[in-house]
Amino acid sequence: MSWRFISLPPQDGYHMVTSFVAVADYVSRGGKNTLLVFYSDKPFVNVGVHQEVWLEVNLEFTKKMGIPVVRRDLGGGTVVITPGEHDYFIVVKADEAPSSPKALYEKYLTPVVNVLKSYGINAQLRDQDIVVNGKKISGNGAMTYNKAVVITGNILLSLDVDLISKCIRVPTEKFRDKMAKEMSDWLTSLEKELGYIPPREEINKKLKEEFEKSLGVKFEEANLTPEEIELWDRLAKEKMNEEWIYYKDNRHPELHTERCVKINSAVALCHLDYKARKLVRITVKIVNKKFDEVSISGDFFIMSPKDFLEYLEDSLKGASVADFEKTIRKVFEEKKPIIFGFTADDLVNAFKEILNKPEVQEVI
User: What is the model's pTM?
Assistant: First the structure.
């Protein structure tokens, strides 16, 4: 089977997060499976599609430093992308990809694991991440697009922990120092592991060899088609629109809180961070024992269906707090989402925790 291998020059953040969509459109229309590689030309903050910017990003610092905030179409957490990483995008026909996220990652990330092992380091796949002796060296995600599946990821060549920690929103500067230290403890890079940074051309060569060996494919050196480039540029311009960047924030402008508070005898506002397999952040406004508004965000991945989260939020809006579990399970049964990071049971347990908060108990 023939695949395309495309290496592009460094790109800005908006083109970084839209490249794979343009390629997925090509693959969906019958084009060849593609392995795309390139890296960012300058730092930017990359926010997951299901996250709220105000909760995740230190906007005061990023605006001061002129660091763009870019929302991608893919789930996962907020990351600071720098030229110190090597990014790859694997785009395949949906009918060739495993339906299970676990099997999907195993199939298409094993070649990346083998590239890292070829440098003599102890790389292993852990869920959707690749770790070296327990430290993450590669973060990955997946999404569906029409008749294509996209796996995105990177290999950390070097780390700028100071910059990363300053871009992320934290409660105090003391916490920021703690976070920077912790990042050094749970992140690593080829530079830290090897004492040097291998040339990107060498990494690309190894990637091609391992993908060909593992998947039984043959690469042809290629360029993006004119149609892909046209769509790519249009999508990148759309991603610059603040309505898109802050769409999740603006969807729930009255729910910008990180605590629980009783407003009056009938109204409560409450936020909860719930750790399932991934972080789920829930904020609710309860009025007269009904959910007046619900926001669900986090660093999870929803592969399908599109707009599932918005549908779930809208289904809970107006529902009695006594019926929340029935509503959640009905939506899951109806939509049958493919989610990596939390289950219907996780969500039910998270809402139970919210409803058990003293501030909420007083109004329900």
Answer: 0.83
